[in-house]
Amino acid sequence: MTDRGAVKAVHKLIQQQLHEGRVERRAAVEASAKSGKPAGPVTFTFELDSIFNHADSVHPIDIQTDLFCRELELYAGALVGPVVLVDRRERGAERVTVGRFRGTMSEMSWWQVDPPTHDLWRPTPESPRRCARSSDMPLRYVFTANGVRHPFRLPRQLRPPVLYERYLPSCGETFSLRVVEVDRDLGTFHEWHNSERVNAFWGEQGTIDHHRTYLENALADAHLLPVIGEFDGVAVCYFELYYVGEDHLGPHLPASHAGTRDYDRGWHALVGNSASRYRGPDRVGYWITAVTHFLFLDDVRTQNVYLEPRVDNAKFKGYLSQYGYNNLGEFDFPHKRASLMHISRQRFFQDVTPKT
After folding, report:
1. Catalytic one among 173, 240, 308, 330?
2. What pTM value is reported for the model?
């Protein structure tokens, strides 16, 4: 049977085909202004080649091809029908068989498939004691110090160091999110916050001891997850991912959103790396959609994601709007007037999807 590494390689190939338009995409129902009907669910048909070795005496070729089809059933929630073998070619001199397989998937579902046995969007936790995502935690309620009732959150110590990683075909790099490590990241964090560009929005300019305390407090906060965003291992961004229900944003949500607050998330963003190759619209699109993707994958119960940028940060709000976020209005914090930006799970996976 194919191993985890082989399945992740297949996953990467499918994403490459989607990015390059080498799949047959179709909507079940075409949108029509005349009929007033919305577009139906979009599916795509992919084809993959796999090589099977004649020397595998334990699994003859027919069994190997059948096992490959079964392994792809990990996409069960996304597949529309079975994966089938459509062609088989022998390479006698090499003693291998090349099989071509075809399958059809729901595009909206494919981006959400994340079986814990394969961790397609995250590295596999190196320890069985570590949980891959928040939804691995059983439900029980606790209270914050100021009396806010909320589900017990996955302790940071049980998370793997790297939370998310995804290959980006258009730039040939891998974007990843990893939990902050004070000793490793303090110097970079200190440098970023002492730049005038970052300080203009974050207002955390200060000494290295101030920034050590800031990171230690962030790591100790159960409702907050401080992470570093990297392109091919180069630190570029800092994000704070939080639960809205326990955050100072919670009371500012519209009444219509109050019922889903237990698992809804929010985030803050800081781009610290000033190198020109890590700036610009494309790079912003990568990390906006990657962070949003991770927050929806981290817990299947998360239905909404929010940001509250300063009201005059028109450039960032424009980027958020480009990738599906809606501006729900303005409100006042003690330290700033903010815009409430929002995206739902359905909106993200149906209309946006991660930038590749």
Report:
1. 308
2. 0.86
